[in-house]
Model the fold of this input.
Amino acid sequence: MHPPHSRKEAILQTATMFFSEKGYQDTSMSEIAKITGVADGTIFYHFKTKSELFLAVLKNFKEGIIRELEAFQNMAVFNTGLDMVEGTVSFYFSLADRMEDRFLLLHRHYPYKLAMKNPDCREHLEEIYTCFIDLFERAILKGQKDGSIREVHSKKQALLLFTLVDGLVRLGTYNLYKAGPLYSDLIDSCRCMLTNKQQETKPTFINPQNKRAHSL
Amino acid sequence: MHPPHSRKEAILQTATMFFSEKGYQDTSMSEIAKITGVADGTIFYHFKTKSELFLAVLKNFKEGIIRELEAFQNMAVFNTGLDMVEGTVSFYFSLADRMEDRFLLLHRHYPYKLAMKNPDCREHLEEIYTCFIDLFERAILKGQKDGSIREVHSKKQALLLFTLVDGLVRLGTYNLYKAGPLYSDLIDSCRCMLTNKQQETKPTFINPQNKRAHSL
DNA sequence: AATAAAACTGACTGTGTAGTCAGTCAGTCA
DNA sequence: TGACTGACTGACTACACAGTCAGTTTTATT
Done:
């Protein structure tokens, strides 16, 4: 299933890069072929159409994400659910930073448009989102068991949390505002959303992103 | 300056509709011409290039938004800053609902890409964002004066708030999750982010959006 | 070595599109 | 009436692109 350096794999890599950085429409198949170093026809031998290639890219991305998430879950241990929420936020930021290019895929409109017609596409997107949101929800549920998080609708709150964090990542890629300096305020806000008692701001973990953009 | 029903105006309307609903790339100039009921050349008589037409659409949208914001500010009166935050959130939702099609413009990637090369485009986008964020900030500052909102960095918190609310709107247009049912949880979370004391959930205002999508 | 299957090629096709331009037409003013 | 102007037209150009296919090369099998 994984012949180490097949042409097919190489095409997939190039396509991922192009679809992420330039978007679906602005990427031509010939371009992908040229950069990969194969003939135009070769792409169509491996992937019937352009949108099938896109689906393959998305699937590949999804699998990568899932692998990362599993690694995170196996590695990270948290005392409280609240800690786990913070850890998850931090993890999402670092992932978005590390896979910055590929995250752009999710922050374009094309996949969601395709998802309306193509059930496979929709399924990939849903799986990706579900993974992240479930992770947040698990943290919330844990926190509700150990008392570090107040009574909230775990699923809904998880979705809100995810929306907030992802929105901030997106803001960074839009290049209008710097998202980095908001990190500690974000963590603080998350804590407030989830707890009853008043808390002092703790020192924060990481502080990713450093694009040129508006300062606050 | 405003000859009531000029062709130019008509083209602008059609273009707004198409760029919003189908995106920049997927809209052809001939299409706009055909639907508007003018010859292909007419568009290029009024707008030199496709991207100049897009800029005009964006500018028009910006002006519409600003008008709406001013109307809101002149009309709405709030007892406390916290109320004003809630009112602003509610306003943003209803605006996004009422101008659903045009908001899609902001939720595509193209404008932000164009903004990297084109300063005019960037300025329009910045102005739009600034308007909204300033509105949130004004609410926060008011709340800090009257004691309904705790000590937070007003600009940063305003940005976080906006990100959260806009992210939720976007989620609705993506059609993967229903954003509507989250409205009361959103308001609750906002209140928690901004206040010190514990509060009971109050009855909420409106509850927009009703797309077919995942339930929670 | 012979054969077959799989991988690969690149010229070619058909279509769609942004932008051009020579020219039409209705209105205005002298 | 006739010269002039600005709005408008639609055929046309030049090109880019997804996808095809007949044919070539590589690899695996016997």
